[in-house]
Amino acid sequence: MDRISELTARALALLGGDPQADRAVPPTGFTARLTLFTAAAMAFLAVFAIALSLATGRLADRWSAELARTATLRISAPADQADAQVRAALTVLEQTPGVASARALSDDEERALLEPWFGPDLPLDALPIPQLIEIVETADGYDATGLRARLQAEVPGAVLDDHTRWRQPLVTAANRLRMLGWVALALIGGATAAMITLAAQSALAANAQVIRVLRLVGARDTYIARAFVRRFTLRAAAGAALGTLLGVMAVAILPDGGDAGGFLTGLGFTGLGWLAPLMIPPLAGVTAFFATRAAALRTLRTQS
Amino acid sequence: MIELSDVAYNYGGAELFSGLSLALAPGSFQFLTGPSGAGKTTLLKLCYGDLRATSGVVSLFGQNAAQMNRDEIALARRRIGVVHQDCQFLDHLPVAENIALPLQVAGRANEAEGNLDELLAWVGLSAQAGQLPPELSGGERQRAALARAVITSPDVIIADEPTGNVDWEMSQRLLTLLVELNRMGKTVLIASHDLNLIRAAKAQVSANVLRLKGGRLQAGVAL
């Protein structure tokens, strides 16, 4: 606890700063603008990386949770046998342990499923569309092999699709996309650190004479580094705050496709997820702090 | 306080001097003379830890400079006030802030409030306190550099040609300031080729004259 208090006090002291010490280093317009722009641009991209990760995470969870508990029974039978086979299938399903519920989709529901491909007003009666039965499992699930065997014997036109075949690749893809989002975030952090390091080195090189004078009057490396570190930390945090604000606004105005929307229209934040971008400015500040400190101390070592 | 023992320094592969020994005793007043290029500035830099000797031992306040890390060198420099030939200011800061800089870096900024005005008056720069260094004349810059060198009340004052860019009257004023500091107990080492200045100093204070020539340091030089 004492350690946390000490670190907090040091962080506040850094942000509060020592105006006199800060004045020892003259303002550096170019590196200031470069740092602000880099931090803002990277924060803007980071908002999208976070949004991507959270959205794909939600997608993977939803596909895993929803599809894992459902299955579809498709009945393809001659028109005169269709109703009988549906009834027989529902009877089998009602008797199957692990099936919580089973119901045949109505014509309207089947029409809604096909509408994205065939358009509205699809004449289902005139087309040999199979009848679909939605199955919802209990928590324990059912014995798919046993159910298939029984259906084969009692409902010859029935095909059980438990979604495993296409669900798993989708969930895998969504999980990989989520991971890629975090990798992108790490790359953004690394690129930010690299850019700030270059800007800090440039500022240090431009102020070689200032550093020499400070050394001659007895300044320690940490004193000299502090003036640069504080400056770059605040610049990076301010730039990141601006970039984050713009990124969040951009995400907020992305079109919402609602239930009919696909993956891209679901890219965004929900609930507490909107708070996630708030981490970006302090993280940018911390990144800048360590990048500048390392660059400054390394440069000061070589200049001695 | 500061002691050089059998010190050699090579510059660009060539030996600038070797076998050089020097001791700055507390309260002493010494002049370092010699022709241009003899290594006077280099010798002064060795004395305040800005350069490392090629061989031999440079002792700063009892510590071997070769074994001191940068922080220790920085702390030693706080006990040494240096007046550089080219003054070395932060040109974007007003004169008053430049003079207070050693206190600032030592974390003693609060001491500047009382001392700064007095010091500015002592070196005759009260009116120039808010000006930037490039706006000062040569003499004013030298006096500002002297004020900065003494603001922390260091044990040793090292001045490299402090009167090099000023007229005789200003040289006398600067010399008077350095003599006053010596009378306050400060150790003073001045590199100068101005023999008139050295004679004037010897009239006011017991000063030892060292001559660096041909890589050798000769003490007790008579003028």
UniProtKB/TrEMBL annotation, chain A:
The compartments listed are:
Cell membrane
Q: Give me the segments passing through the membrane.
A: 33-55, 232-254, 274-296
Q: Residue limits of the ABC3 transporter permease C-terminal domain?
A: 183-302
Q: How does it sit in the membrane?
A: Multi-pass membrane protein
Q: Which Pfam families match?
A: FtsX
Read off the InterPro entries from this record.
ABC3_permease_C, FtsX
Q: What is this protein called?
A: Cell division transport system permease protein
From TrEMBL, chain B:
Pfam families attached here? ABC_tran (PF00005)
PANTHER family attached to this UniProt entry: CELL DIVISION ATP-BINDING PROTEIN FTSE, IMPORT ATP-BINDING PROTEIN
Biological processes, Gene Ontology terms: cell division
Give a GO cellular-component term: plasma membrane
The entry lists its GO molecular-function terms as:
ATP binding; ATP hydrolysis activity; transmembrane transporter activity
SMART domains in UniProt: AAA
> Domain named ABC transporter: which ranges?
2-223
Species annotation? Loktanella salsilacus
What is the name of this protein?
A: Cell division transport system ATP-binding protein
Q: Which domain of life is it from?
A: Bacteria
Q: Which UniProt keywords apply?
A: ATP-binding, Cell cycle, Cell division, Nucleotide-binding
